[in-house]
Amino acid sequence: MIFTQAIQRNSLLYKDNIATCIGGNKKTWRELEQRVAKLANALISSGIKPGDRVAILALNSDRYLEYYYAVAWAGAVMVPLNIRWSVKENLFAVNDSGTKALFIDDQFLSIGKSLQQLSENVEISIYMGDKPTPASMLNYEELINKHAAIEPFNSDENDLIGIFYTGGTTGFPKGVMLSHKNIWTSSFSILQELKLSNRETPVMLCAGPMFHLAAAAMCWSSVIGSVQVSILPMFKAEEVLECIQRDEVTDMLLVPTMISMLLAEGGFKDYDLSSLDQIIYGASPMPEGTLLEAMELMPKVKFCQAYGQTEMSPICAILPAKYHTLTGENAGKIRSAGRQSFINQIAIKDEKGNSLGINEVGEICAKGPNIMMGYWNNPEQTQAAIKNGWLHSGDAGYMDDDGFIFLVDRVKDMIVSGGENVFSAEVESAISKFPGVHEVAVIGIPSEQWGEAVHAIVRTKPNTRCDEIEIIQFCREYIAGYKVPRSIEFREEPFPITGAAKIQKNVLRKSYWKNQERNIN
Amino acid sequence: MIFTQAIQRNSLLYKDNIATCIGGNKKTWRELEQRVAKLANALISSGIKPGDRVAILALNSDRYLEYYYAVAWAGAVMVPLNIRWSVKENLFAVNDSGTKALFIDDQFLSIGKSLQQLSENVEISIYMGDKPTPASMLNYEELINKHAAIEPFNSDENDLIGIFYTGGTTGFPKGVMLSHKNIWTSSFSILQELKLSNRETPVMLCAGPMFHLAAAAMCWSSVIGSVQVSILPMFKAEEVLECIQRDEVTDMLLVPTMISMLLAEGGFKDYDLSSLDQIIYGASPMPEGTLLEAMELMPKVKFCQAYGQTEMSPICAILPAKYHTLTGENAGKIRSAGRQSFINQIAIKDEKGNSLGINEVGEICAKGPNIMMGYWNNPEQTQAAIKNGWLHSGDAGYMDDDGFIFLVDRVKDMIVSGGENVFSAEVESAISKFPGVHEVAVIGIPSEQWGEAVHAIVRTKPNTRCDEIEIIQFCREYIAGYKVPRSIEFREEPFPITGAAKIQKNVLRKSYWKNQERNIN
What we know:
- Two copies of one chain form a homodimer.
- The first copy, chain A, is an alpha/beta fold.
- Chain A contains 16 helices and 27 strands.
- Among the domains of chain A are: 21-178, ANL, N-terminal domain (Rossmann fold); 414-513, GMP Synthetase, Chain A, domain 3 (2-Layer Sandwich), CATH 3.30.300.
- In chain A, the strands form six sheets. Chain A has a nine-stranded mixed β-sheet, sandwiched between helices. A five-stranded parallel β-sheet of chain A has the order 4-3-5-6-7, sandwiched between helices.
- In chain A, helix 9 links the parallel strand 10 (203-206) and strand 11.
- Chain A is globular and about 70 Å long.
């Protein structure tokens, strides 16, 4: 299956239905197809050839969604840049991928130096905003207006469709190569798992950053299911609530920190959220306290967890709504990341690649048509990640007798204290239940006695004070003694986060380790 | 994706749920997986190697479903034989495919000569019944009991998984080669289109013959969706009604003649059919009169049409329930065969392969991952059928502005009368509305004046008489003069039908044409 086929199908079958909506501005499937087919022609006329890389650095918009499809329509390769990365990191991605053209919007145009630096490294710059077009740049709408619609390039389903850079924060960004087949099979499976298109008039809210596979895949699944995509330029709790009310949103994907922010939004109860049917969450571990609070505040909303990573296009497991319960036969599964999707096999493997048994902790590995082609220009990392067809996720976890997988940590965030493995996520989950705790990150810090000691960094709710001793005593009720933090630090400033809103534990660890090397990875 | 993965997934995720049910005898997914994995081992131990062909000649049963998966589990190739074919035709299939092993049940064992002839042509014969095992045959249950469960063969998704013989009635049986990918993508798409697994406790009734792709694909979709399959040995109207009531069937696939038989069943209203949610129909054109009668009798049941053929694994278009209406904005679509599925592109092409415009009649062509690999040992027919990736269906039809395709006839059943194309299906649809008409077949017969003349063969309802002149006058209200039958013949004996319950028009035509050749194909 080819990525662009869904657009052609919707234009034929659902022509006048709404495809995209941003700030009340709507476009139909027929309009979307025409704009994509014209923009593809403009790219080709500007010198873009099949296989050429075309990057984008922009906030979310309907034009961002058109970009995905126009690049593929032209037979080229999309390279969505991380909006939270430094110029230096994005320059690495642009140069590493050999990007030829760059789409950029007002937000990033205003960072004069960054624009200049990025533009110098590409042949074609396309301005996506509505202000006067800067010199030496092409204008997005003009390109569409000046070109005729063309037929899509005749891609093969195994052709590269995009390079998605991940892991920039570790200093080693890797370009995940995905094919038409990777993205199509994954998005179609997600449509079936999440039952998006079963509602009468489904509307997907895209509030997460569209450069990231989590948000992108939700857009692509929605397009396959001809589900309207409502788009916010970026996540703002109040705007999310406004948009749900205005566009009658039925489904949305949020990462755990976004759910925290939504719950913290003062005006939460002033909005009519009755259209909202499902919140899909994922992309980083969900603290149980936050999830329970969200479920209590929105009792009619189904919560569904999606687990995976960019390398999996991006999902390999789903935890459906019915397992979000604390009672009955399904109790306990809420702590799971779910079970293998329709298209994936999941295995827990040891360091030698042997499959482990029920409840044994090892590395979570996945196999299926959604597993990436490899890392761009990086055969060593590709070989380290994919062995015998199994993608090694870097996540440590186990599988129970019913096939549910439970994450215990990132392999490299696991703390080895006194010879015992301590999983930071488990400790965080315990601390998050303590009244007054807003956010928590647990890391291993150097300890002469234990090798590593468990250390927690806590942010409290506004105008709330927590006591270190009380939290430690509280933890003893939930977790074994060796897992209880040896020390707790309180801080007011936000945690450093990645573009995908994950807490950057390597940054938090830095000041403790300085010149010392951690033993794990 | 590999065909057998769904069985492994269900065994892990839904272990104690019911997989199959026949005559009240139930097996769980875990049992099914174990039996399949043991039977595969038995096949391998008996000398079956990856790629070897393994045929079956049997009525429907849970063992038939196990056969599909065990053959694939062993890496071998299934060859389901047509239960309505003559021994000679099935011998052709066995020899043409180079079949090494044959599964056979009591029904076909009793045809002594056929068994002997078939058995002589294969190395291994496996008896599927529960009576004493004939000499020189292996016993199905013994094979399972004597062998340990093994892991499935590591197939590639592009490997051949089955050869399905079609067109035997024309004297030129062709073996349709399907891959794991063909069957998996098609079955998964069907699951999504038909929303089988969305119900609380879905149960699929398999009443059509399991050698045929229509019934087989419904079984495979059900397995992917972990939907219970209830199986009848063969279609009998009364048993269908009993089974719906007993097993609380929610979905079933029937071909049009089966729906006619169901409606004609005297005890129809004595059964509790309240569980029944959806009837999927297809495999041959549905006379509008029959459909409307069925919709009236079962007002709460959703009717959904699936259109395709074995070469499409087997579906390329779906007409969802909401278009089964005579009023409102969707009126008129009920006469359509539906719109392209999620995984297919459909085009109407002329004889030169050019795409035709809206409402122009040509050959219906389809493209997608479900299109067969080709015909076994038959590169000429493969090239004639698949041109530039487009499968030519042999069906004549057109597409309307909304993407709905309308079948007008088989290309070879079209009647050319006085230089005008007459589509037999259209004439049949008109006649089927005449009160008292049970079944009708329209064919072209030789005419000195018109080249071909439109001729109708009618079977009336029990104890009903129809008048030739009245039917002809009735037709004038619905169809143009040149399409109205010149002659009508009444007959009592059933129409000759294919294994897929399609009327064999070539047989009906035979006595009229004798030594004359028809110009069309």
